[in-house]
Amino acid sequence: MVTINDVANAAGVAPSTVSYVISGKRSISPKTRRLVEDSIRKLGYHPHAGARALASSKTNVLALVVPLRTDLNVAVVMEFVASAVTAARAHDHDLLLLTKDEGPAALQRVASSAIADALMVMDVETADPRVPMLLALDLPVVLIGVPDHPAGLSCVDLDFTAAGSACVAHLAELGHRSIALIGPSPAVYRRGTSYATRFLRGFDEATKARDVRAESRACAHSYEAVSACLDDLLAADPGLTALVVHNEAVLPGLLSDLRHRGLRVPEDISVIAVCPDSMAEQHAVALTNVAIPAEEVGTQAVEMTMRRLAGHTTPEVRLLGPRLTRRESTAAPHA
Amino acid sequence: MVTINDVANAAGVAPSTVSYVISGKRSISPKTRRLVEDSIRKLGYHPHAGARALASSKTNVLALVVPLRTDLNVAVVMEFVASAVTAARAHDHDLLLLTKDEGPAALQRVASSAIADALMVMDVETADPRVPMLLALDLPVVLIGVPDHPAGLSCVDLDFTAAGSACVAHLAELGHRSIALIGPSPAVYRRGTSYATRFLRGFDEATKARDVRAESRACAHSYEAVSACLDDLLAADPGLTALVVHNEAVLPGLLSDLRHRGLRVPEDISVIAVCPDSMAEQHAVALTNVAIPAEEVGTQAVEMTMRRLAGHTTPEVRLLGPRLTRRESTAAPHA
DNA sequence: TGCCATCGTCGATGCGCTTCGACACACCGA
DNA sequence: TCGGTGTGTCGAAGCGCATCGACGATGGCA
């Protein structure tokens, strides 16, 4: 193993000088700098992460807590993780993966073992039991999602309330007077998952404000559940002309089922989805959608974290405005 | 911060004794053990990861290199990551996420900074440029996928060659004499991605051995590409009665398109997919599939890694046998 | 009763790095 | 010419832990 001493010897300087060349915390003459940098390159020196962490109490590692239900949301979670790790590397940090399943204890462990410098937490619930513990942690924490009482924690997410309203607005402007929301599975609502309840709120407020007839249902993602959900909605409101789908997993089955029923999209029924753009474009009828900006959220989460690490102490709550893209699946209802 | 000294003082023993209680590397009297464990619990002591790494040259971290093309394979990658992190935690290790994009340099960095104890590498190519470097690394390395020359590296994966054969065998036994393979996008083949070429080989061998008429196409995952691909296949062989789909992303579009063409599944055309079970069950016509056992591969990869870390030095190559589940999408062809 | 082996505990050392205070030297103005 | 002010470099200390050799106590056996 190549150590800082080896580099120092090779360059004919003191180890501390090498350290200062690397960190830039003291001024170094151009001559010495060149000498040291050459030695570093020649020897292939990389500082020992553990030693560095021990001496400086900084690990250059960010911990990310992800939900590991592999049946749900995968595309979004994956995209988020991808952008987070990329953004973290851009700031010379690595990403450590934790699972929600391990619960609060894992957060304690990571914090008090000094494994990571900061925490990013996904899949936040409205009354998330982890929030109090996170507050006590005195590590920078950024939540992806917004709990009811973020207290002193930073948050970033799509503005799902606005997204819910935007869907309704789009449909209402096309002339729809009777629409339904197909939401995530009942379990998601039961857990009080932040984005689900916020979206529903936006949907409800907007339909009320515009005096649009509205129904909403939680929907599991099996084909049978989708089909039953549609039965139910059409029975409750035979005049239904539009669907808002806040449940990506359900889309293929839903579109199949609509066709089975002889309902054409968008001629007989309009469909607007909340999903990544790539998914919206993947279907035979390209879907009008509100994009889930997983990539931007991931990047923002990292940026906010880095800001906290740099000493920026006031927590921020950042809600990204929804972006609705009109494609082929929405149209004015037939008379 | 609570240190080992604090615990030692609280328990009235020497720091080294606390260390031995934790590691179990020397025998400790029951009385002392209880004393120490109580103090640990009372103080909420967690060893400092950096200090531990420095003193013992072990980090208890596994690095996982994932491909971050978020458009492809997401479900499989996600499931794999999920099981890997869970398995790693079961062995008291954490998981660090690296991206393939960073290339070989990232592997060097991680190895020589002693950030992780071992590497697991996904998305291996037949002639993967990372292999030589990984060999030189003197860290345990486990590949997910099998390159042409694994040399001294451990590998684990689904036996895609057998999977390709199994698909053909199933269809042939149903009586199909003319089948086509819809594979991953051209870019995947161009990169020489291990699983794509191995599956194709199994498909080719089996169709030849059984004297079945066969076509195969790479297929991008846009709806247009799928449609064009089907046009092409049906033109090349109007008597086509079955499709093998080794491209999960394409399934929703493909099934839509078949219906548009008036081709019923399985009455007019059989479809067998290589995809996770959850995805197979999600469609209106439940799909016969060969499962991608991402979860088992992830677990196995970790187990193999732990074995290497425990001193088990001979590299293993482990290919998991394919599991084909018959559902509704395959049937005997009509005369 | 005395000796030796065994078991359990302790103290010291060093892992590789950052950081702080000290210091040598050059340069400026008086 | 001399004191003063930076600038660039050095040496030492210490971060928290694992590990090794040493050592005291205990018990068995002769």
UniProtKB/TrEMBL annotation, chains A, B:
Q: Where is the HTH lacI-type domain?
A: 2-56
Keywords, alphabetical? DNA-binding, Transcription, Transcription regulation
The record's Pfam families line, in alphabetical order, gives: LacI, Peripla_BP_3
Which Gene Ontology MF annotations are present?
Answer: DNA binding
SMART domains linked: HTH_LACI
Lineage: superkingdom: Bacteria
Q: What is this protein called?
A: LacI family DNA-binding transcriptional regulator
User: What's the source species for this entry?
Assistant: Amycolatopsis melonis
